[in-house]
Write a structure and sequence with these properties.
binds flavin-adenine dinucleotide, FAD/NAD(P)-binding domain, 17 strands, 6 helices, alpha/beta
C-alpha cells in the first residue's frame, strides 16, 4: 500500500501549531500534527490565568488550550501523539520523512512549532532535587507547599506571576533576582508591592540548592554580602525559556541562542521547512503572537506547495 504523503506535517500542538493546523485545514491542505505529549495545547496548559488573549479575559491556560484543540478537532485536523526520532529528506522525492516510534510520516512541507521549554539554572542540587522541592511550574506544584516557605528565582513576568500565585498559598515567598530591578511588566508591580508575604532579594544569585531528600536550604550570594544560607521548603525556577530546536539542528539555520532564524512568513534557510511560534527568532513570545505566526505561515506553505515544491500537489483535499 502506498504511504500517505501529507502536504504539511506540523511538529507541536501548541498555539502556533494548532493555529497553523486550523488555517491549513481551511486551505484544504492534507495536514498532520505530531505532538510529543499526550495532550496538546503547549506551554499554556500549566498557566493559571491568561489575561491577555483578546476576548478571553481571565481564562485559565488549560481552558484556552482545550478550546484551541477542540477547534482543530472540529475541523478534522489529524493530531497524533508521537516521539520523533529523526527527520530526513528523501533524496529522490524531496519529501520530508519524519521518523517516530509509530513509524515514518511523509510530508511535502514541514513546520517546526515545537515552542520552548524551561531553562535550567545549572547549579549544584538542581538536578538532584528536581521533583523534590525544585520545580519549574508553580501552578503545577504550588499546592504541595501550602503554608510553607518557598523561593522563586527570576525577574521577568513568569517569575513575578509565579511569586504572586505562590503568595496566595504559601506563608512566605522569596523572589530572588540577580539584578537591581525586575524585568517584569509594570502591570505586575502593584500586586507585587501589595503582597505582604513576598520579599524581593535583589542583586542575589543562587549558588547551590541543598537538602537530603527534599529541598532544605538555598546558598545565596548577595553582591557586597557574599554567601549565606536561606531555609526554604521549595524553589521555583523561572529563569527563562530555551527553544526546542534539537531536531532542527543541521536542517535549518539557528541563531546564537538556538532559535530557528525565520521571519513572520515562517520561511527558514531550507526550502519547504518552516517555523512558527516561540521556536523562531522574534521579540514577543506570547500566545497571540504564536497564533499569528501559525496563521501567517500557512500563506508561505501554500505558496511553496503551489509554486516551488517539485512534488506533485494533487493531494490537496477537497
Ligand atoms: C508559565 C508561563 C506562563 C505564560 N503565560 C502567558 C500568558 O499569560 N499570556 C501569553 O500570551 N503567553 C503566556 N506564556 C507564553 C505562551 O505560553 C507561549 O508564548 C506560547 O505557548 C507559544 O506557543 P507555541 O505554539 O509557539 O509553543 P508551545 O506552547 O511551547 O507549544 C509547543 C508544543 O510542541 C510540542 N513539542 C515540543 N517538542 C516537540 C517534538 N520534538 N515533537 C513533537 N512535539 C513537540 C510541545 O509538547 C508543545 O505542545 C506563558 C508561558 C509560560 C511558561
Amino acid at each position: 500500500m502506498k504511504e500517505t504523503v501529507y502536504d504539511l506535517i506540523i511538529l507541536g500542538a501548541g498555539p502556533a501549531g494548532l493555529t497553523a493546523g486550523i488555517y491549513a485545514r481551511r486551505a484544504r491542505l492534507k495536514t498532520l500534527i505530531l505532538e510529543k505529549n499526550f495532550t496538546g495545547g503547549g506551554q499554556i496548559v500549566s498557566t493559571d490565568q491568561v489575561d491577555n488573549y483578546p476576548g478571553m479575559p481571565k481564562i485559565s491556560g488549560y481552558e484556552l488550550a482545550e478550546a484551541f484543540v477542540n477547534h482543530a478537532h472540529a475541523l478534522g485536523l489529524e493530531i497524533t501523539q508521537a516521539k520523533i526520532t529523526s527527520i530526513e529528506t528523501d533524496a529522490q522525492t524531496g519529501e520530508k520523512v519524519i521518523g517516530t516510534k509509530k513509524g515514518n510520516f511523509r510530508g511535502k512541507a514541514l513546520l517546526f512549532a515545537c515552542g520552548a521549554g524551561h531553562r535550567h539554572l545549572g547549579v549544584p542540587g538542581e538536578e538532584e532535587l528536581a521533583g523534590m522541592g525544585v520545580s519549574y511550574c508553580a501552578t503545577c506544584d504550588g499546592a504541595f507547599f501550602k503554608d510553607r516557605t518557598v523561593a522563586v528565582v527570576g525577574g521577568g513576568n513568569s517569575a513575578v506571576e509565579e511569586a504572586l500565585f505562590l503568595s496566595r498559598l504559601c506563608a512566605k515567598v522569596f523572589l530572588i533576582h540577580r539584578r537591581e530591578t525586575l524585568r517584569a511588566d509594570p502591570v505586575l508591580w502593584e500586586p507585587l508591592e501589595k503582597a505582604e508575604n513576598i520579599e524581593v532579594l535583589y542583586n542575589t544569585t543562587v549558588s547551590r540548592i541543598t537538602g537530603e531528600e527534599q529541598v532544605e536550604k538555598l546558598v545565596l550570594c548577595k553582591q557586597g554580602r557574599g554567601e549565606y544560607e536561606q531555609k526554604v521548603d521549595g524553589v521555583f525556577l523561572a529563569v527563562g525559556m530555551e527553544p526546542n530546536t534539537q531536531l532542527a539542528q543541521g536542517l535549518v539555520n539557528l541563531d546564537e541562542n538556538g532559535y530557528i532564524v525565520a521571519g513572520e512568513d515562517g520561511k527558514t534557510s531550507a526550502p519547504g521547512i518552516f517555523a512558527a511560534g516561540d521556536i523562531r527568532t522574534k521579540r514577543v513570545r506570547q500566545i497571540l503572537t504564536a497564533a499569528a505566526d501559525g496563521a501567517a505561515v500557512i500563506a508561505s506553505v501554500s505558496d511553496y506547495l503551489l509554486q516551488d515544491c517539485t512534488i506533485s500537489t494533487n493531494s490537496i483535499e477537497n
